[in-house]
């Protein structure tokens, strides 16, 4: 907000109604000339929240953000391949039980798509079985969206090891994952959300329908899944069609 007020060619005694669409566009151009796309988008998103507050409280009658699109950089999806998952599963952690438990919790997330917050609240009694297939029906902590997570076979092996699923704090989990990463000599940064991307990618590569993947992940609609994993989906489409001819 201070950045914007310093930029405005108006004095502090004027009403916020003095803020025009030209001011917003000019400020955005200034940010883009000084910062990277991600930082500029972050500042603009915060400014838009202040403007919206003014609109909601009838201080601003005309939205100066009209027609202004905040461009956020495309996030690169990082995930693990099946081979990389197996490398972690079979890694020699020197008998360190703390590292082994964190590794197992991470593998369970890779094989279920659960976010850390959802895994933390998971109990063995939440896990159901039908015809030899294990799954979890619940609601996500983040958005209360329902999900049906089908647990992949390598993650079922983890479940069979424990009466109580081993989950520690998110911070400690990521610290231990960094230690595991160093032990293995891994070239990818291991963290909790990487596991969720891995689950989705494993399903995509097995040609699972995006609507089904969306239900497994607890996305509010399949468009989120399609948008987020668009590049991966394109690769799968190309491979699937090419395999026919």
Descriptive report:
The protein has 245 residues and is mostly helical. It is 53% helix and 7% strand. It contains 12 helices and 3 strands; from the N terminus they run ααααααβββαααααα. The chain has a 3-stranded antiparallel sheet with strand order 1-2-3. A hairpin with a 6-residue loop joins strand 2 and strand 3. Helix 5 packs across helix 9 and helix 10 crosses helix 11. The longest helix has 20 residues. The radius of gyration is 23 Å and the shape is elongated. The model has no long low-confidence stretch (mean pLDDT 87).
List the helices and strands and how they pair.
Elements: H1 2-7, H2 21-34, H3 37-56, H4 82-89, H5 97-110, H6 116-120, E1 127-130, E2 133-139, E3 146-150, H7 153-159, H8 170-184, H9 192-205, H10 210-217, H11 222-228, H12 230-242
Helix pairs in contact: 2-3, 5-7, 5-8, 5-9, 10-11
Nutshell version of this structure?
This protein has helices at 2-7, 21-34, 37-56, 82-89, 97-110, 116-120, 153-159, 170-184, 192-205, 210-217, 222-228, 230-242, and strands at residues 127-130, 133-139, 146-150.
């Amino acid at each position: 907000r201070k950045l914007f007020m310093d930029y405005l060619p108006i004095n502090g005694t004027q009403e916020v109604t003095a803020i025009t669409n030209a001011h917003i566009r000019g400020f955005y151009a200034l940010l883009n000339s000084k910062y990277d796309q991600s930082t500029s988008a972050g500042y603009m998103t915060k400014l838009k929240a202040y403007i919206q507050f003014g609109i909601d409280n009838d201080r601003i009658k005309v939205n100066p953000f009209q027609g202004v699109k905040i461009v956020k950089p495309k996030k690169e999806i990082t995930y693990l391949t099946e081979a990389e998952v197996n490398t972690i599963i079979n890694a020699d952690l020197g008998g360190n039980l703390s590292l082994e438990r964190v590794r197992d919790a991470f593998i369970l997330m890779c094989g279920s798509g659960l976010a850390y917050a959802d895994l933390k609240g998971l109990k063995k009694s939440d896990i159901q079985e039908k015809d030899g297939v294990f799954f979890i029906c619940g609601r996500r902590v983040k958005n209360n969206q329902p999900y049906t997570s089908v647990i992949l076979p390598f993650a079922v092996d983890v479940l069979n090891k424990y009466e109580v699923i081993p989950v520690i704090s998110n911070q400690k989990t990521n610290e231990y994952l960094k230690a595991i990463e160093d032990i293995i000599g891994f070239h990818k940064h291991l963290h909790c959300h990487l596991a969720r991307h891995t689950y989705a990618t494993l399903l995509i590569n097995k040609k699972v329908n995006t609507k089904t993947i969306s239900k497994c992940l607890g996305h509010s609609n399949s468009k989120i899944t399609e948008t987020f994993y668009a590049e991966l989906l394109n690769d799968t489409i190309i491979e699937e069609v090419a395999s026919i001819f």
